[in-house]
Design goal:
CATH architecture of one domain: Alpha Horseshoe
Number of helices: 12
Distance between the termini: 32 Å
CATH topology of one domain: Serine Threonine Protein Phosphatase 5, Tetratricopeptide repeat
Order of helices and strands: HHHHHHHHHHHH
Radius of gyration: 25 Å
Number of strands: 0
Low-confidence stretches: 43-53
CATH class of one domain: Mainly Alpha
Structural class: mainly alpha
Shape: extended
Helix content: 55-70%
Mean pLDDT: 83
Largest sheet: none
């Protein structure tokens, strides 16, 4: 039977005697089918495969491309290529971030009062998804150098991912006090405001980010989403149109939010 065939019948043989009786009862009365764990099977090697994630960059790219074709058949070729490229870039960034963590730890061991090294260590932890682990070095960075905007920004990212919304907002507010012309600071301030339901203030922050950087795809997306939350569908559509040439993948996500359906292929 090939992987694409539909299963018409599934047979499971059970004795009506002994311990099997309870499983037969579950099958008849509750439509529940029991299978043992792979390591309890007669031949565990038959049903206990060991997956391997090792692959070359090209092999991984082909796998992702095929996965998008199967799961999202209406996605255009250009959008599919963009999404695959983004995933590959993030995978490479994760590998580099793990190496960076060790490098920044060595820098701190040589100079324990090096605020920038603590900030960069927290940034590297954020890039690997270890947001909780990022908090301590970033707190140390902001203690050593309170005027360091990157320290406040990075810990704002950590707090945001950890759903500590008030702390995230305070961190991004401090970030733009120190560096008001930083587009990413303004955009993440808007995100933090939106997470607390302060949508009008969020819109103003995203707009400021776009004044500073008109081609900022993330800010267009966040602004479009904020418009939706305030009932301004036309504003969201306008951001979608501006976002399409900048980041088709994000544009598709915003389209789905606006129209509650997949974008046309």
């Amino acid at each position: 039977m090939s992987a694409g065939d539909d299963v018409q019948h599934l047979y499971k043989y059970r004795s009506l005697a002994g311990v099997s009786a309870q499983f037969v009862e579950r099958l008849i009365l509750h439509n529940e089918l029991y299978f043992p764990r792979p390591n309890e099977f007669n031949d565990p090697f038959d049903c206990c495969p060991v997956p391997s994630l090792r692959a070359t960059r090209d092999e991984f790219a082909r796998y992702l491309n095929d996965l998008y074709k199967r799961r999202m058949p209406r996605l255009s070729r250009a959008d599919r290529r963009h999404s695959v490229t983004a995933i590959l870039r993030d995978s490479l960034r994760d590998h580099r971030s793990k190496a960076a963590i060790e490098a920044f730890k060595r820098a701190i061991s040589l100079k324990p009062d090096y605020a920038e090294a603590y900030s960069n260590l927290g940034w590297a932890y954020n890039n690997t998804g270890n947001y909780a682990g990022a908090v301590d070095p970033l707190q140390r960075a902001t203690q050593l150098k309170p005027e360091l905007p990157e320290g406040h920004f990075n810990i704002g990212i950590s707090y945001s991912r950890l759903q500590q919304k008030q702390q995230a907002l305070a961190s991004f507010q401090r970030t733009i006090e120190l560096k008001p012309d930083w587009p990413a600071g303004q955009n993440n301030l808007g995100y933090a405001l939106g997470s607390l339901g302060k949508w009008k203030e969020a819109i103003a922050a995203h707009q400021q980010a776009l004044i500073l950087k008109p081609d900022y795809a993330g800010a267009h997306f966040n602004l479009g989403y904020a418009y939706l939350q305030t009932g301004n569908k036309n504003g969201a559509v306008e951001q979608y149109q501006m976002l399409k040439p900048l980041n088709p993948g994000l544009a598709n996500q915003l389209y789905i939010m606006i129209y509650k359906k997949q974008p046309p292929s």
